[in-house]
Design a protein that fits this description.
By secondary structure, the protein is α/β, with parallel strands linked by helices. It has eight helices and ten strands. Bound molecules: adenosine-5'-triphosphate (ATP) and magnesium ion.
């Protein structure tokens, strides 16, 4: 028997409807994460972290986590990847709780994570193999991504034949081929020399910023943060807490030269002032 409502349903206000239909890409709610060290002591890594990263269809969003060494940045990213379960609090991606790892979230680490015995093409195809995509289609999709990250002429090379920057391009391509809803990058350029790093920053702007991607990006470098980010979350010393949320203005251009502009310097100094005021030091640096 169908139920008859006793009272007419009350329509949600338009704003609430909008929020429900377009939840943030990522929401962390009152997150607490701890480890137990070898002596059995509790190490609190993340404390009371709440933040959200917008879902911006068509243009994407790049959020940077900036914080001192050991403060808990990787721990936060691991909880979003589903590699760690928080002690309490919630991790929501597109409004749904994260329950373990999944292809919808792709992680790029500081160290290069490719299969040494597979060519670039075979490395990038790997995720598609797991999905059971037929060989010809796999190759087509993988080659398109390889071209995008600038490795077209190296598709048959083995990782050991590549430079550090090229290896990291392979890692990015391996992630992108799965079309993740969220790309997690944990100091991806930390091991690269300055010049290679600049090239990789351009790759992020050209490839990741021009599409629908939402990226969480960890760095120690204030200039890199300001150059790449839409929004910067400044984290405290361990246990990580969010001290500041800084919206980065839309620079007219994101060419490398913008780093020398007065507008860029103004934002960079603003971030540095906040870091000083909050007594955040550690190995945070300004540019390379
Ligand atoms: N497996 C573990 N067991 C015990 N403590 C841990 C473990 N992993 C991390 N920690 C501690 O948790 C804290 C946060 O670690 P995390 O790796 O998240 O920091 P981080 O901000 O990414 O540091 P870095 O900038 O050096 O990469 C650190 O103090 C670290 O020593
Ligand atoms: Mg880390």
């Amino acid at each position: 028997m169908a139920e008859t409502p006793v009272a007419p349903a009350i329509a949600a206000p338009p704003q609430a409807q909008l929020a429900a239909s377009n939840p943030p890409k990522l929401e962390l709610k009152d997150l607490y994460i701890s480890y137990t060290d070898r002596k059995g002591r509790t190490v609190q890594a993340v404390e009371n972290v709440s933040l959200s990263v917008a879902n911006k269809p068509g243009i994407g969003e790049l959020a940077v986590f900036l914080g001192p060494s050991g403060c808990g940045k990787s721990t936060i990213l691991k909880s979003v990847a589903g590699l760690m379960t928080p002690d309490s609090g919630e991790v929501l991606v597109d409004g749904a709780p994260v329950e373990g790892t999944g292809r919808d979230r792709g992680m790029v680490f500081q160290s290069y994570t490719s299969f040494a015995w597979r060519t670039v093409l075979k490395n990038v195809e790997y995720g598609l193999e797991l999905q059971g995509i037929p060989a010809a289609e796999r190759r087509k999709q993988a080659m398109a991504i390889i071209e995008k990250v600038g490795l077209k002429d190296f598709s048959d090379s083995l990782p050991k034949q590549l430079s550090g920057g090229m290896k990291q391009r392979v890692a990015i391509a391996r992630t992108l081929v799965n079309k993740p809803r969220l790309i997690l990058m944990d100091e991806p350029f930390g091991a690269l020399d300055p010049q290679t790093r600049w090239g990789m920053q351009s790759l992020i702007l050209d490839v990741l910023r021009t599409e629908d991607n939402t990226v969480l990006f960890v760095t120690h470098d204030v200039a890199e943060a300001v150059y790449l980010a839409d929004v910067i979350f400044v984290l405290s010393h361990r246990p990580a807490k969010v001290l500041h949320r800084i919206e980065v203005p839309f620079f007219e251009s994101r060419e490398v030269a913008v780093k020398q502009s007065s507008e860029f310097k103004r934002v960079e100094n603003h971030v540095l002032d906040l870091l000083h005021a909050s007594n955040v030091q550690g190995n945070i640096r300004v540019g390379l």
